[in-house]
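Sequence in, structure out. Go.
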Amino acid sequence: MKDLDAVKKIAVLIDAENAQYAVLGAVLSELSKHGHIIVKKAYGDWSSNHLKNWKLPLNELAINPVQQFSYTQGKNSSDAAMIIDAMDLLYSKRFDAFALISSDSDFTKLASRLKESQIYVFGVGEKKTPLAFRNACDDFIFTEVLKDIEEDDENIEENEEVTSIRKDTSKRKESRQQLCGNTKLIKLLRNAIQEYADDDGWAALGSCGELIKRQHPDFDSRTYGYRTLTSLIEATQLFEIDRRKSEKSKTHNIYVKDKRA
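Output:
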């Protein structure tokens, strides 16, 4: 059983008008890696035909649907209900993190307000989500990335004989040429490494990853087809990797160095 005092207690709030029911399972699985989900609520006008396919996933995933009729035709009134509930949950002081599931920029202010109260904010939405909302979160997860992972896992389960091959040769992995041609990505990696580099040019990869996430909440190595930041950096072949064994924890700490140094 989980020690609830040792993990984040998460409230998940879903804007059904601007989210996809097909990825809800993958979203909750991803968020569960970061803590214990205490509250799961989805907001929308459930009398609308637009949301008729949500019933099954809501029941299967034990998500509480919150009904909000549209006061004006063509306008979404569930945003206000979701924001009011979020503030009520915030004032209860029971949660360490909130997950806002939406691709709507209207939740930018809410995300900022939660962060002001030292609450960790996850955002989950499509790649079309406005940059302002993505940057207002501590960690923004693209649903397209979760879809790709889910499809890969399903394919691997269907054919166990090629499990090891599929894990290493996903068709979605960008090549070294593509990665190196992405000047924004390479600059991002180099700047982070330079920030934490010691006199010999080595930097702890964990610290670099944390900096990148603070600067760019929507950064995810899986966007490029690599499950970890380490594998992404190795694929560029622009950096040296050093795995140093820790005497205290008996684990390996990963350090990285720009080959130009």
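Check: The longest strand covers residues 35-44. The first helix runs from residue 24 to 32.
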